[in-house]
Design a protein that fits this description.
The protein has 152 residues and is an all-alpha fold. The chain has two domains: 1-79; 82-152, no CATH class. Helices cover 73% and strands 0% of the residues. It has helices at 2-22, 27-41, 53-73, 83-93, 96-104, 108-111, 113-121, 131-151. The chain is globular, with a radius of gyration of 16 Å. The chain starts with a helix and ends with a helix. The relative contact order is 0.09.
Amino acid sequence: MLESNVIKLAKARLEALKVLAADHIEFQDVFSLYSEIKGLVDLRYMNPTHLSDDAINELILIDNLASLTMRNVNPAAIKVRTEQGARLDEYMTMNERELIDLIFKHGGRFNNQDAISVAIHRGLLDDVLSERLAYEQVAKREVEASMSVLHD
């Protein structure tokens, strides 16, 4: 019960963060909401956590998506200088098809929350169970990119 409430609250705060960030609300307000999310997702570090593995993975996704959203708001203010931050940077610059291949063909959907988070953030993925939809999205974007190159 508590586990599901923490996840629901963190997801609701993440959606609010995305709206605030998109509307270019004052940075301090956005950062305050980001801090609330960090407090919720950091519950996974408590010992013992009393959280299921699924809940921990969900909190990792929410944490990564919040960090990626904040990077779009003010990259200089939120710079993750960790191994995780380096992986997020690597996945952000990775070719879309390579990223989806990493998730689905190389087993990332089972153990790579960072790659999944970036794919969700980039709009390539809604659900790790929807492999076909992810590849359709990539193919659609590739066609759009090739069309824009032809028109330029």
